[in-house]
Amino acid sequence: MNVPVSIVIPVHNGRELLEKLLASIARQTAAPLEVIVVDDGSTDGAAECAHRAGARVIPMGGNRGFAAAVNRGIREAGGESIALINSDVELDNRWLETLWGTGGAADFATGKILQTGSDHILDGSYDLICRGGCSWRAGAGRPVAALADVISNIRFCSATAAIFRAELFRKSGLFEELFESYLEDVDFGLRCIAAERRGTYSPGAVCWHQGSATLGRWNARVVRLISRNQVFLIARHYPAELIRRWLWHIVVAHALWGGLAIRHGCGVAWVRGKFEGLRRFRAVRREAGSPAGNLAPAIVESEREIYRLQSESGFDAYWRLYFRLIGSPR
């Protein structure tokens, strides 16, 4: 079975993980139109590995970040749809066939993303955002039963392993490169909501994700970028009236995330990220234009889903404190 899907894989080192991903693509029950590996400045032979596996390799000429690498691959792709897959992912043999078959008329689709080495613990399968502007990967660290095992509509789609209609990028634009890496997919999701685009969660499409394989989850650079990009999300998407209305939620969400960073020895990186985000706030806002006025209901709905999933499967310390301080969403 052949499907008109271009697979785009951004990679910055991690040759052994890329080999596993490419082998899992070769085992797919549905054959993609093409496999494009965008080499974002790898130095460990990852590009050569991709060449040997028969992928088309596009060199970026240096490390320019996830968003720029993905965008280059999207521009070069010829498929009716484009599958974006992180290089530290491994796919179940039916992943592509299942997502292609269940995506239907949706603009994007993702499946069940598990932690590497486990069939029972979720890495998190799609994105959610709270009124404070911080996001959570739905079900992260929870047993698979935490997410209903049914096909459902979603508003946000992680770029970890997902299929997007090529037409969506032509209409809504590519990933915002000022984010470099991290939260560019949440930014894209907010733009999709503003354009009334929707996606599908298809739990039958299974893959495994190692997560933060390049730098590590609590690497100082990762923390700085996430800290900064959380501010960029608000600058780009929250009208002034919404910032005033949700100011307490914003302060609580960002301060608690800073507490996590301090706990993991990355307090300085968190401060640097927040300082850079605030320093560039007005410029980012001007460049983005007037924020969409229809996002508030979707963000509130997303926060309610975070609360529901956390309530049903046990609160993380972060979300327990967040909802204790702002109250349960109504």
SSE topology:
Elements: E1 5-11, H1 15-26, E2 34-39, H2 46-52, E3 56-59, H3 66-76, E4 81-85, E5 89-91, H4 95-102, E6 108-115, E7 127-129, E8 135-137, E9 152-154, E10 161-165, H5 166-172, H6 184-194, E11 199-209, H7 220-237, H8 240-245, H9 247-263, H10 267-279, H11 281-288, H12 296-313, H13 317-326
Parallel strand pairs: 1-2, 1-4, 2-3, 6-11
Antiparallel strand pairs: 4-10, 5-11, 6-10, 7-8, 9-11
Helix pairs in contact: 1-2, 6-7, 7-10, 7-11, 9-10, 9-13
Structure notes:
This protein has helices spanning 15-26, 46-52, 66-76, 95-102, 166-172, 184-194, 220-237, 240-245, 247-263, 267-279, 281-288, 296-313, 317-326, and strands spanning 5-11, 34-39, 56-59, 81-85, 89-91, 108-115, 127-129, 135-137, 152-154, 161-165, 199-209. Strands 1, 2, 3, 4, 5, 6, 9, 10 and 11 form a nine-stranded mixed β-sheet that branches. The protein has a two-stranded antiparallel sheet with strand order 7-8. It is of the alpha/beta class. The longest helix has 18 residues, at 220-237. α1 (15-26) links the parallel β1 (5-11) and β2 (34-39). The protein is built from 13 helices and eleven strands. The chain is 44% helix and 18% strand. The chain has a domain at 220-326.
